[in-house]
Design a protein that fits this description.
Layout (H helix, E strand, L loop, with lengths): L4 H9 L3 E3 L3 E3 L3 H9 L4 H6 L6 E5 L32 H16 L10 H7 L4 E4 L11 H10 L3 E6 L4 H5 L7 E5 L5 H7 L7 H11 L6 E8 L9 H11 L3 E6 L18 H15 L2 E6 L4 E5 L11
Parallel strand pairs: 3-4, 4-5, 5-6, 6-7, 7-8
Antiparallel strand pairs: 1-2, 2-3, 8-10, 9-10
Helix pairs in contact: 4-6, 9-10, 10-11
Length: about 325
């Protein structure tokens, strides 16, 4: 199904580049910070990613099965999967055209005196793909092939999923170098109210994914997006129970930020301080027996690791 013209206008106004039938690319805040001010994102500190060489994209700009209240992206999608007859773009085409789209988005930085030319030349040749921009990427049926294409070119890959498609993860021959699963509710009731699933049995599917993770041959991270007055206070043990099932390399508690379209559904009171995130994280680390391994106050994020020495992605 082609993108709705009204959706296209909104996305382009927000500086998304659209690729093919269902892919989007957008420069993240930290890409700009890195090029103009030399500030790296927390993933650089935690995992060794080079911020200005990261391609932020999604192969499912118009596909999602959640309408999370805290999501700051435009939720104008109207598809929950690819049906018979829907266009499914080739993975190599998506990667090639996404790199070209990012080049166009970066063009204006070259003339900015704050941007070093050598750094700009590196930025237009990305070495990392963050498949996390919007939508639910695992709904793209050729995602495994896409990661295979990325890895052939020596690119590292991140995938962020809401965990509701365990069957898609189970059949992937090529997994991302680092797989994030968003576990943003400690219980089914909070999940239904906060993540607003558009599918039935979403909570059951998420738990199936958690059970699957230990068998997957890749680095795994559980992210807890913490929203004040919703899913923080009194829930450490519930999160710990879910984390133990998945047995991830890293747990990443991260505070909700009152930005974008989430402001239509949340208030500033829902944005927790970094101090609250840190306190939650210290309690959770103790409960799990993980090490409090890293923190970035400007991103309201921490990392809890089974082994701090394995935080950095090999080869970076």
């Amino acid at each position: 199904m082609p993108l709705n013209p009204d959706l296209v206008k909104i996305l382009q106004k927000q500086h998304y580049a659209l690729v093919g039938e269902h892919t989007g690319v957008k420069l993240c805040h930290w890409m700009r910070q890195s090029l103009l001010h030399g500030r790296q994102c927390y993933k650089a500190d935690f995992y060794g990613i080079t911020t200005h060489r990261c391609l932020q994209m999604t192969p499912t700009i118009n596909h999602c099965n959640h309408k999370c209240l805290y999501c700051w992206r435009y939720q104008g999608f109207n598809q929950m999967g690819f049906g018979e007859g829907d266009a499914v773009d080739d993975p190599a085409f998506i990667l090639d055209e996404s790199i070209k789209a990012q080049f166009k988005l970066l063009t204006g930085f070259k003339g900015d005196p704050r941007c070093e030319e050598a750094k700009w030349n590196e930025a237009i040749a990305p070495r990392h793909v963050a498949c996390s921009l919007s939508g639910e990427p695992t709904l793209y049926p050729r995602l495994s092939e896409f990661f295979e294409e990325c890895h052939k070119r020596g690119m590292t890959t991140f995938l962020v999923t809401n965990g509701t498609t365990p069957e898609a993860l189970a059949k992937m021959d090529t997994l991302p170098r680092q797989l994030y699963v968003s576990v943003d509710a400690p219980s089914e009731e909070i999940y239904k109210n906060l993540c607003a699933p558009l599918i039935s049995k979403g909570w059951e599917k998420l738990n199936e994914t958690l059970e699957l993770l230990p068998s997957l041959g890749t680095r795994t991270v559980l992210r807890h997006t913490l929203v004040d007055l919703w899913n923080i206070d009194g829930h450490v043990r519930e999160y710990a129970r879910l984390d133990r099932i998945a047995d991830p390399l890293i747990v990443e508690p991260k505070g909700y930020v009152f930005v974008g379209y989430s402001r239509q559904r949340m208030t500033i009171q829902n944005m927790p301080s970094h101090e609250k995130i840190k306190s939650f994280s210290e309690q959770l680390a103790q409960e799990l027996g993980y090490e409090f391994a890293a923190e970035r106050s400007d991103s309201r994020v921490t990392a809890l690791a089974k082994d701090k020495g394995k935080m950095r992605i090999p080869g970076l």
